[in-house]
Amino acid sequence: MLIIGAVLVLAAVFCGYLAVVGMPETRGTRGRVAEYAVLERKPLLSRMNDGAVSTVEGVLSRRGWRPFTSDELELAGTRSSVAALVVLVLALGGGTFFGLVALQQPVLLSFVASLLVPVVAKVVVRAKVGRRRKRFAGQLGSLLQMMASSLRAGQSLPTAMDAASRDADSPMAEELTRVVNEYRIGRDLVDAMEQVADRMESDDFRWIAQAIEAQRETGGNLNEILDQVAETIRERHHIREQVMALSAEGRISAYVLMALPIGIGIYYSMVAADRMGVFVDSGIGKLIMLGCGVMYVLGGVWMRSIVRIEF
Fold first, then answer.
1. In whole angstroms, how far apart are CA 179 and each of 120, 131, 193?
2. What gap in Å lies between CA 212 and CA 225, rounded to an integer?
3. Final residue of a domain: which of 192, 221, 244?
4. pLDDT band, very low/low/confident/very high, at 10 (cuts 50, 70, 90)
5. Are 218 and 199 in a shared domain?
6. Residue 181 has what pLDDT?
7. How many CB atoms lie within 10 A of CB 141?
8. pLDDT surpassing 60 at residue 12
9. 261 in a domain, yes or no?
């Protein structure tokens, strides 16, 4: 038995080495070509990942539906493609399911936990997008000041916007660079700005584009127009921050109340699985869980409508 165990351990180590490093080159045609050319050698896991990503990409293309959009991932700062992120989420979901089953947790609980993985991934991506858009909104006041200063110095509007893009921080720098590059290849400046406003969901930036368009049609001093728009945006941003500070307690309470039932359910499923099994095995338990789920969703929608204030 000791010899058999040692052989199995060595076999496992060898398989792990092949999975990470890959198969060694042989003295066949590939080996002879490798002496005169540089060939890419990918480990087995990388080749398996590339195959899975290609398969998922084909399925998503045929279905015409994607759980994440390319713009969403770009705004979230994720360099992975949609298919690669889907493969990662599927792998994490499968690992969560089999890991909980290996820990002798109920199959239903393991399945529900695995279904929460894509939900968490979607929430994380949206949270990153929201933070980026919030930073963008907070940089508009300083942007208008820099543009107005450049215009007073005698620069044109595209040149002033290009200079502001070099001095601004992220994400304003990237978005302004996009506008300037599109203008250089022949696109209208206002149209490019409105597209950025749609991407960032910023009404304030759309107002800037509309102010520039109005100045084109009616004339006037663009410096004064930008100063007035900047003052309005700063006041709106100040009021928005005040409202967010006053509603912070309500939002935190909503998060705690929404997370409390799930946390308690997971805890008791681990420490008292036989008692929690009553809600899954019996008919009355299933009805109670169904009613609790409906009330949970209604309560979440209600609290979200209370603490969400639109400007």
1. 33, 21, 6
2. 8
3. 244
4. low
5. yes
6. 92
7. 19
8. no
9. no
What are the tens digits of pLDDT across the range 248-264?
Answer: 888 888 888 888 888 88
Phi then psi dihedrals of residue 250, to 5 deg: -65, -40
DSSP one-letter code for 157? H
DSSP string for the chain: -HHHHHHHHHHHHHHHHHHHH-PPPPSSHHHHHHTTS------HHHHHHHHHHHHHHHHHHHHT--SS-HHHHHHTT--S-HHHHHHHHHHHHHHHHHHHHHTT--HHHHHHHHHHHHHHHHHHHHHHHHHHHHHHHHTHHHHHHHHHHHHHTT--HHHHHHHHHHHSPTTHHHHHHHHHHHHHTT--HHHHHHHHHHHHT-HHHHHHHHHHHHHHHH---HHHHHHHHHHHHHHHHHHHHHHHHHTHHHHHHHHHHHHHHHHHHHHHHHH-HHHHTHHHHSHHHHHHHHHHHHHHHHHHHHHHHHH----
If asked whether residues 53 and 81 sit together in one domain, one would say no
Angle, CA 182 vertex, CA 177 and CA 187 arms, to 5°? 145
What is the tens place of the pLDDT at every residue in 39-89? 456 665 666 667 777 777 777 777 777 777 777 888 887 777 888 888 888
Residue whose pair of structure tokens reads 């060939």 in the numeric block? 39
Q: How many domains does the chain have?
A: 3
How would you classify residue 138: left for phi > 0, otherwise alpha for psi between -120 and 50, otherwise beta? alpha
The per-residue pLDDT for range 192-222, each reduced to its tens digit, is 999 989 988 888 888 888 888 888 888 778 8
What domain range includes position 13? 9-63
Considering the domain architecture, whether residues 161 and 74 belong to the same structural domain is answered as no
Give the distance from CA 185 to its chain's centroid: 30
What amino acid occupies position 121?
Answer: A
Q: Pick from 293, 230, 226, 232: which is nearest to 258 by CA?
A: 293
58: its two tokens: 């084909």
**Cα 113 from Cα 93, distance rounded (Å):** 8
